[in-house]
Amino acid sequence: MHAFGKPPVGFVLSEVARTLERELSLAWEVIEGRSTVEELTALQAAGAGGGAPAGTAAPRRRAERLSSLRRNAAEARPEAPSAPAPASASKESAGENKEYTAGDVLFNKGDSADHLAIIISGEVEIFDPKDNKSIAILGKGVSFGEQAILEGGVRGASARAYTDVVCLEIPTGPLRTILKADPGIMTPTIEGLLLQLNMINTLSKKLPRNDSGIDFRVMEANNMTSVQAKKMLEEHYVKAGGSGLTGEVLMFLKLQVNSMFNTTVHNAGDVLMKSDEKDFTSALILVDGVIEAVSPHGTYQLGCGSLFGLAEGLTNSSSDWTLMAQTKVTLINLPIDRIQRGLTHANPAFRRIVSYTADRIVEIKRDL
């Protein structure tokens, strides 16, 4: 793992990735007004002279875009509409300033995901186009579209401008490259948070229970071994166009076959987590069986692929739910302290993604 300003641990990032990390960190400081455009220009000029790929945007032009972002953030309102921005930004840039008018659709559910966004000013609505039901209203400083950092990620919901909006849209190709080179815990952490966010969003829609009496599950009852799950993943990646597995199923299977996590088995009637519990040691992923979750506002029957306690552990929040095994259950345990240690060495962009996603999960979960 490499942390800016610290010696690399475990592997050494390529020069392009290292330059990207420095620029992302400093670019955010420019937007927040904690660093100057001149400092960023000097860093980018040094990178261009040190072997940056030919054809990238000039450092001054990138810095000017970021200076514009900082002005927009300070004024908390978008400027007059400008010509459309390029479809994708330079790999070495910190993103593109994109402006939207209230009602504009930023992306649709099912679209291929190639960038994440941070709201500089205004509000964005995340919604399900099937019934036009609002899932969340996101404000200034919040990131969204995190699925884009996962290879092959697709949009799990649609997004539109709730008001006039300015977003910083960051291409995720370079971030994926850094994640793929990371043998540690960052990728499963982000995948776990996206699984938990998917579960919370689904429950917030108050859908009727399926034929098995389950409110949420990623897959049917799963009694596969890790070897069988690994084979299913391999078949998906070697088959042209994939095997039709959804993004949620892929994330779940990858967590199931990850050898760094322990698996535990519990009997029906066992209390797995209490509503007032805090500082718990592990988040839990349900591999097989059914768990009853009792919340302040209702009771849910949750099946395979449900995830508990990750966002809460990372935000030092209480669980709010009491979890009881309704059948014999198999759980994957994600150690919270190990994840927190990994985050201290993670790329600043990933730390922000984890922080914003965890906060959003906890906020939505309070109403369930």
What does this structure look like?
This protein is α+β, with helices and mostly antiparallel strands. It has 2 domains: 15-177, Sandwich (Jelly Rolls), CATH 2.60.120.10; 184-365, Jelly Rolls, CATH 2.60.120.10. It contains 10 helices and 16 strands. The chain has helices spanning 15-32, 37-49, 59-75, 173-180, 186-204, 226-238, 247-256, 310-315, 336-344, 348-365, and strands at residues 96-100, 105-107, 115-121, 124-128, 133-138, 143-144, 158-161, 165-171, 262-266, 271-273, 282-288, 291-295, 298-302, 307-308, 322-325, 329-335. The strands form 4 sheets. A 4-stranded antiparallel β-sheet has the order 1-8-3-6. Strands 2-7-4-5 form a 4-stranded antiparallel β-sheet, with no helix packed on it. β4 (124-128) and β5 form a beta hairpin. α6 crosses α7. It starts with 14 loop residues before the first helix and ends with a helix. The model is unreliable at 1-14, 48-59 and 73-93 (pLDDT under 50).
Basic shape: globular
Biggest sheet architecture: 4 strands, antiparallel
CATH architecture descriptor name of the largest domain: Sandwich
Instruction: State the CATH topology of the largest domain.
Output: Jelly Rolls
Helix percent band: 25-40%
- Strand tally is 16
Distance from N terminus to C terminus (CA atoms, Å) equals: 37 Å
Residues in β-strands, percent: 15-25%
Contiguous runs where pLDDT drops below 50 for at least 5 residues: 1-14, 48-59, 73-93
Number of helices: 10
Q: What's the structural domain tally?
A: 2
Biggest sheet: strand arrangement:
1-8-3-6
- Average pLDDT, rounded to a whole number, is 77
Structural class: alpha+beta
Secondary-structure element pattern, one letter each: HHHEEEEEEEEHHHHEEEEEEHEEHH
